[in-house]
Structure formats: C-alpha cells, structure tokens
Design goal:
Layout (H helix, E strand, L loop, with lengths): L2 H11 L4 H19 L2 H5 L2 H6 L3 E10 L5 E12 L5 E7 L5 H17 L6 E6 L8 H15 L8 E4 L6 H15 L19 H18 L9 E4 L4 H12 L3 E7 L2 E4 L6 H12 L5 H8 L2 E4 L11 E3 L9 H9 L4 E3 L8 H9 L3 E3 L1 H4 L2 H15 L5 H23 L8 H20 L3
Parallel strand pairs: 3-4, 3-5, 6-7, 6-10, 10-11, 11-12
Antiparallel strand pairs: 1-2, 2-4, 7-8, 8-9
Helix pairs in contact: 1-2, 2-5, 2-17, 5-17, 6-7, 8-9, 8-15, 8-16, 9-10, 10-11, 12-13, 15-16, 16-17
Bound molecules: NADPH dihydro-nicotinamide-adenine-dinucleotide phosphate.
NADPH dihydro-nicotinamide-adenine-dinucleotide phosphate (NDP) binds next to helix 9.
Length: 445
C-alpha cells in the first residue's frame, strides 16, 4: 500500500469531503510502514474497509419554532466501525455540520476508542441545527424530532451516542428522554446523562480532566513541573472550562479562553472568581466570552483566536477543528511553547502538525489527549449495565489510569531512536493495530 495513492483514490471518490480526507491522510501516512509489514491486511483490503464507514444515515429534521414557523435541518449518524464494540461517539449540533465533518469525527473516534482499551467502536452524528439563541422549548422540540428519526438505529448494544459541540447535558437529557419514550426501555443508550438517570460522576469533567492527565504524563517524560506554567486555552465550552478547572487545581495559570466571536487574554492568569464567572456565564446564562472582557476589563480580540496574542508555555486548543494553522503554530513555537495537548478533535492543520513535530515539542493529537471523555462514557455504560454507580474518586482514578495507559501505548509505538516521542504516530499505530486485528479475525463483513 502506498499512502499517497490510497488517499488520492479516496479523494477522487469523495471530492467534496476535505475534513474526512484530511483525517484519513494523517492516519494512513503514519501507519503506512506498519501496515506494509502485514501483507495479509492488503489481501483483505483492510485499509479501505477501515476508512469507509459501515453505514451513514441522513435525514430531514422538521420542527416548529416558538413563533409557529416550521423549520428544517439535516440530521446524520455515521456508524463507522463496530469491530471492537458497539458504535460509540458524540452528537454535534452546529451550523457548520455536514457529512464530511461527521465522517472525519467518526473515523477519528474509531481509533480513539480503540486506544481507551474499552470495548467501543466508532461513530458520530449531528445536525446543522444550532442551539445558540434558541429557547429551551425549541431545543427540546428539535431534539425530539431528531430522535424520532434516529431511535431505531441506536441502542445500548448497538450504538450509544453522547454530547459534542452544541450538545451538553440539556440536549442529551431531551434526546435520551425521547429515545426512552419511543423504545420503551430504560437502558444505557446515551452517555453524558444527568446524574439522576444513569449519568456517571466525572463524565462532564472527563475530557478536560483527561487532557490534563495526559499532559502531566507528557511533561513527566521531560521532568517538567506544571506548577506556574502559563497555559493558553481556546474555547469556553465543556472541554475548555473543565481543562481550566483542573489546570488551576494543579497550580498552572490559564491565560486565554475564547468562543466563536473572539478571544480573551488574561496575562496574569484567571483567578478562581473569574473562572467561576466563566462557568456560570457559559453553563447558566449561555453568554459570550466578550461579556467577561467587559466585566473584568481584560484584552479582547474580536473574531480572533488566542494564538498570536498570548505568551504561553503550553497550548490546549479546545474549541473546534483546524483552529491552529501553520502560522499560528509557528507563532506558538517562536514564543517558546513546550507542549500542545489537544482537547478538540483535529484542531491543528497538517501544516501546524509539521511545525510542532519539526520543533520536537511535546505534541499530543486529540485522539490520544481528549480520549478521557469517551473513556468515562465507557465507564458510564459499564455502570448502567450493572445498574450501579461508582464514586467520583473511583471514576477519576480509572480515568487517570486510562490516560496513563494511552500515554504508554503512544510511547510504545511512537518512540524514535533519539528518545523523541512522536505521539501522532504512536496513537495512530496503536489505535489501528487493535481494530485491524479484530477485523481480520471477524472475516470480510
Ligand atoms: P461546546 O459546545 O461545549 O464548546 C465548544 C466551544 O468551542 C465553544 O466555546 C464554542 O464557541 C467554540 N467553538 C465552536 N465552534 C467554533 C468555531 N467554528 N470557531 C471558534 N470557536 C468555536 O463543545 P465541547 O467543549 O464539547 O467540544 C469542544 C471540542 O472538543 C470539539 O472539537 C469536540 O469534538 C471535542 N471533544 C469533546 C468531547 C466532549 O466530551 N464534549 C470529547 C472529545 C472531544 P460558541 O459558544 O461561540 O459556539
């Protein structure tokens, strides 16, 4: 198999899916040598079967807004692979959602879930509906209409969705409630549920906390202490805010956050009171990060990401895909960044990844660093099937162990002769080998 020829072939078949091709390209180029050591993979045309999703559902979602207007959105579910467990992956509600973005996310999810060591396949779903500016009742009607179409395709041992951009506890609650009504069963379908109806403790925090645990493992390889380090975060949603909470607990300084309208920079680091304000602003009032700048008088950069404006030791992009381009990456490296640990999925463009790897900094791709979210989703599924709930300490300690294990797998498959750990290669090869072996054992499906 030649990676370039393979990716060019996919590009010809799916010419309008740039994000999907970008994600496949990154994985295929880094597993090329390993794949070619196994001629049996090629005989079974394994790579193509692994890159093209098992199936895609797409449907119209019609709902009624508060003024009585009938609105139509597109809904999707990509069931990418169930080679190692039931399909599993979040649902994204954002105006930018299309099939290419969900295909890239479902593809990435397959390798990420494999890395967690838990039995979960890969999937992703969503809609171009944006909850921003909608009332609770509008969001509820939309979620119910979405699940009316999807409920037959999901189930506790079939496909278990969760949250992602635009889908938090409120949306998961509405979708799970409607699923339960349609399916007439109370099972673990959906993770990230409310605590009172089967949600796991630490699930809301898990992606951000897990990213910090992964970062600690990376820093330890170079004997670096996190205390006092200046960390630039992008985003101010679920992943970003819980990353900030854990970083501050660990003694680091959070020097930036953002939303889709702009970025704030707080050179001395957020105070506890300021972080609390952001948590309330985002979770209760659903406000904008600009309001933080207005209240505290800090620097605010409308329409911009933080990377060119902030002096930091560590960057943790936690908003969306392709939010760090080659120039941003160079700016971060030039001002001395020592580590980049991705909370978001594919936040760095291929040019940015080249810059980070070239500079030999500690660089963790999202599929390794942000796997804590889905890992605790896996723990939520385990608790649901046992009809039990574990303590926060128990879940947190399992999360720490899983992140350490993912780090170990990256080291095993990504360590170069000079000791540098290429986490991109490590995560891709480790994630790929497990899925590939499972596919080989199960025959051509
Ligand atoms: P949220 O919706 O809670 O927050 C997303 C944040 O990113 C918001 O601040 C949002 O700003 C900002 N954002 C979204 N789209 C854009 C954009 N196009 N440009 C600039 N800013 C943007 O989502 P999550 O925190 O859950 O997800 C963030 C990232 O983490 C995503 O890449 C997601 O796939 C990934 N992830 C999430 C997991 C989870 O458990 N939730 C697990 C693993 C990965 P605004 O409010 O203005 O829209």
């Amino acid at each position: 198999m030649k990676a370039k020829e393979f990716v060019d072939g996919l590009k010809r078949r799916f010419p309008n899916e740039p994000e999907y091709i970008q994600a496949v390209d990154e994985v295929v180029s880094s597993i090329e040598d390993t794949y070619n050591e196994h001629p049996e993979f090629e005989r079974y045309n394994l790579l193509e079967r692994l890159c093209i999703p098992d199936r895609i559902f797409s449907f119209r979602v019609s709902w009624v807004d508060d003024k009585g207007n009938v609105r139509n959105n597109m809904g999707y579910r990509i069931q990418h692979s169930n080679a190692i467990g039931p399909y599993k992956g979040g649902i994204r509600f954002h105006s930018s959602v299309n099939q290419s973005i969900l295909k890239f996310l479902a593809f990435e999810q397959t390798f990420k879930n494999s890395l967690t060591t838990l039995a979960m396949g890969g999937a992703k779903g969503g809609s171009d509906f944006s909850p921003r500016g909608k009332s609770d009742m509008e969001v509820m009607r939309f979620c119910q209409a979405f699940i009316t179409e999807l409920w037959r395709q999901i189930g506790p041992d079939t496909d278990v969705p969760a949250g992602d951009i635009g889908v938090g506890g409120r949306e998961v609650g509405f979708m799970y409630g409607w699923y339960k009504k349609m399916a007439r069963e109370f099972t673990g379908t959906f993770t990230g549920k409310g605590r009172e109806f089967g949600g796991s403790l630490i699930r809301p925090e898990a992606t951000g906390f897990g990213n910090c645990y992964f970062l600690l493992n990376m820093l330890a390889t170079r004997g670096i202490d996190i205390k006092g380090k200046r960390v630039a975060i992008s985003g101010s949603g679920n992943v970003a805010t819980f990353t900030a909470v854990k970083l501050m607990e660990l003694g680091a300084k959070v020097v930036s956050m953002s939303d889709s309208d702009g970025s704030i920079v707080v050179a001395d680091g957020l105070t506890e009171e300021q972080l609390q304000y952001i948590l309330e602003l985002k979770n209760i009032y659903r406000g904008r990060i600009r309001e933080f700048a207005e209240k505290y008088g800090c620097e605010y950069y409308p329409g911009e990401r933080p990377w060119h404006h902030v002096k930091c030791d560590i960057a943790m992009p936690s908003a969306t895909q392709n939010e760090i381009d080659g120039d941003d990456a160079q700016a971060l490296v030039d001002q001395g960044v020592i580590a980049v640990s991705e909370g978001a999925n594919m936040p760095s463009t291929p040019d940015a990844i080249k810059v980070f790897l070239g500079a030999r900094i500690l660089y963790a791709p999202g599929k390794a660093a942000n796997a804590g979210g889905v890992a605790v989703s896996g723990l939520e599924m385990a608790q649901n099937s046992q009809k039990m709930s574990w303590t926060a300490e128990e879940v947190d300690s399992r999360l720490k162990n899983i992140m350490a294990d993912i780090h170990h797998q990256c080291e095993l498959f990504g360590k170069e002769p000079d000791g540098f750990i290429n986490y991109v290669k490590g995560a891709n090869v480790a994630g790929f080998m497990k899925v590939a072996r499972a596919m080989m054992d199960q025959g051509v499906l």
